Amino acid sequence: MAEGWCLGSNDGRYHRRPRRRHPDDRQHLRSRPSAGRDGKKGAADHCLGRSRGGLTTKIHVVVDAQGLPIRLGLTAGQTPDGQIANALLDHLGPHTIVLADKAYDADRIRKLIQDQGATPHIPPKSNRRWKPCFSKRLYRERNLIERFFSKLKHFRRVATRYDKLATNFLAMVKLASMRLWLRAYESTA
Asked: Labelling 174: which of 23, 69, 71, 121 has CA 20 to 30 A away?
C-alpha cells in the first residue's frame, strides 16, 4: 500500500484510469445538441429573425381607407415581405386599390391582386424590365400605414416585444389594434 491517502504509485503524478471508449468516440467530443434534436413536437415559430440590429420581427398589416387594420401577420426579421402576401391579400374586394411598397413588387403578387378584381398600385423596383403605370400622387395615401405603425408604437409592449412566442406577440398587436378601432369609433358616436 502506498503512503498517504491514495492507493497506487507514489511518483507524485495523478494517474487516471483509462476510460472506456465508445465505438465512434470522435462524435461525442463536441459540445452541441444531437442531430435528432429538432425541438418540441408542434413547437411554434417565434418569428425572431437576425439582422444587423439584433433580433427583429416584422409586422405586416392591411389597413382600410381610414388607416385602421383589417389583417395582421408576423414574420421573422430576415424573411422577405412577399412571402406573407398570399395570406394577407386573399380576401380583397372588387374595385379595391392596393397600395404597397416596393418589397411587394412581384408578378405573382400583382396577379393575386388582379385575380380578385382589385388594382395593384405598387412602385416598380429599379431592376424591373416592364414598368407598370404608377402615380406618385395616389401613392401618398400609403402614409396611412405609416401612421398606423406610429400609433401602434405607443403601446409599449408592442414596441419592445416582451413576448417570446409569436402567438402571444400577435395577440398583443391585435389587442392594440382593437383599441385603435375602439378609439376611432368612440369619437364618431
From this structure: 121
Question: What cell does 26 get?
Answer: 470522435
* DSSP string covering 70-104: EEEEEEETTS-GGGGHHHHSSSPPTTPEEE--GGG
What tens digit of pLDDT does each residue of 40-63 get? 555 557 888 877 778 888 999 999
Confidence of residue 154 (pLDDT cuts 50, 70, 90): very high
Q: CA angle 165-170-173, nearest 5°?
A: 135
Is residue 47 within 8 A of residue 74, CB to CB? The reply is yes
Please state which of the four CATH numbers 3.40.50.300, 3.10.105.10, 3.30.420.10, 3.40.190.290 is assigned to the domain occupying 49-188: 3.30.420.10
